[in-house]
Amino acid sequence: MQLGMIGLGRMGGNMTKRLEEHGHDVKTYDPKVESTASTLEELRDQLDAPRSFWMMVPAGKITADTFETLLGLAEPGDVIVDGGNSWFRDSQERYGRAREKGIHFVDAGVSGGIWGLEVGYCLMVGGDPEAVAQVEPVFVALAPEDGYAHVGAAGAGHFVKMVHNGIEYGLMQAYAEGFEVMRGSEFELDLHEIAGIWRYGSVVRSWLLELLHSAFEVDGSDLEKIRGYVEDSGEGRWTIAEAIAENVPAPVITAALFARFASRQEESFAAKVNAALRNQFGGHGVRAVERAQAQTQDPRA
């Protein structure tokens, strides 16, 4: 089938290649990459009605702006798919606005990262059945066998992907803490080897563990070249907010998100407060900050 892919970054570019390998006719638009179209209007004109557009751009303003433009260009019967990590409430609102114009909107949670081109992408899709059916050949081509599902109404795809990423935070943090405990132990453990054997028969085996084994292989068991600075792209925060709204305890995902916050601090002010308090009430020693003596230079020298 025909598809207009908008955004040819690490995900969109590889998805386009995979679709073309499966015989689909993909027209493309990305202002930063060589594409079949130089504008969204030109992309529309390259597609036969009813058209299917796939937005694969970062969540937030770029997605919002792209959707607004498409809403003005698309015609009744066309489908707009958002494959980014948008907040599910935004997707529900976009579905409603598109529906008023007779345009279909589908939210597709996509997981697979840079490996998706080779092994396929897990797809969690939300929207009306007729809209999903119109784009289903693309979903089937992108996903591995049994890796795609229409999970529910508008917003459900991005909701499920949000929770998926929240779980991912917890899994990653558990591996991180476990391997640090082993690294700090009295034993001289080969972390690369341990990650390797855990991939076979262990109850903690997973694709994330396979990726960790690969990381140790490339960067060494001490990961010396990697700084422990961990960003978050929003899904963990949204998952926790939903857990609070539903009165569902989610301590693991919450702690994992906070661990990411802590990883970005050069120096924890909270830890300084704790140290100062222990010194005040118990006379416990504090470690002074070591500062390099700045050398002043005469600007006339």
Mean pLDDT: 93
β content, as a range?
Answer: 5-15%
Which segments are poorly predicted (pLDDT under 50) over 5 or more consecutive residues?
292-301
Structural class: alpha/beta
Number of strands: 7
Q: First CA to last CA: what distance?
A: 72 Å
Count of DSSP H/I helices: 12
Largest sheet: 7 strands, mixed
Strand order of the largest sheet: 2-1-3-4-5-6-7
CA radius of gyration is 24 Å
SSE order in H/E notation? EHEHEHEHEHEHEHHHHHH
Shape: elongated
Helicity range? 40-55%
Structure description:
- This protein has 301 residues and is an alpha/beta fold.
- The chain is 50% helix and 12% strand.
- It has twelve helices and seven strands.
- The chain has helices spanning 10-21, 40-46, 61-73, 88-100, 116-119, 129-142, 156-183, 191-197, 207-219, 235-245, 251-263, 269-282; strands spanning 2-6, 25-29, 52-55, 79-82, 104-111, 122-126, 148-152.
- The protein has a seven-stranded mixed β-sheet, sandwiched between helices.
- Strand 6 (122-126), helix 6 and strand 7 form a beta-alpha-beta unit.
- The N and C termini lie far apart (72 Å).
- 32% of the residues are buried.
- The model is unreliable at 292-301 (pLDDT under 50).
